[in-house]
Amino acid sequence: MSDTIFSKIIRGEIPCHRVYEDDAVLAFLDVNPLSKGHTLVVPKEAVATLDKLSEESAAAIGRVLPKIARAVMSATGATSFNILQNNGADAHQAVFHVHFHVIPKVEGRGLGIGWEPMKADNAELKALREKIAWAAATETQKG
Prior knowledge:
It is a single chain. By secondary structure, the protein is α+β, with helices and mostly antiparallel strands. The protein contains three helices and five strands; from the N terminus they run H-E-E-E-H-E-E-H. Strands 1-2-3-5-4 form a five-stranded antiparallel beta sheet, covered by helices on one side. The relative contact order is 0.17.
């Protein structure tokens, strides 16, 4: 894992506008926000993608995300928000340290999403379901 800007922020080497911190998670305002209140929620565990995150860090993120979402909505007056989390360069990840964006929809600002669904074949869905269910069961047995 390379030394990312988020690792440097976590260590206090680069300043940030912290909104929350505990032993496992840091949340701070994005300096290039899509809307006012755009907040990053970052596990202190330094891994690039969500599939590499430990169960402990994943649980800590799961506990903190709703709190931060409520706080952002309260502080900004937003009534809607997006949670964005990208994994890998092809998925538009720019900083290779797991992080979640809490992006409020405020005054016409926020995340825009292009959604282009494709037609799914039922036989393909069944085969894919079986593969994913088998892989999930295998992961459960490991952990």
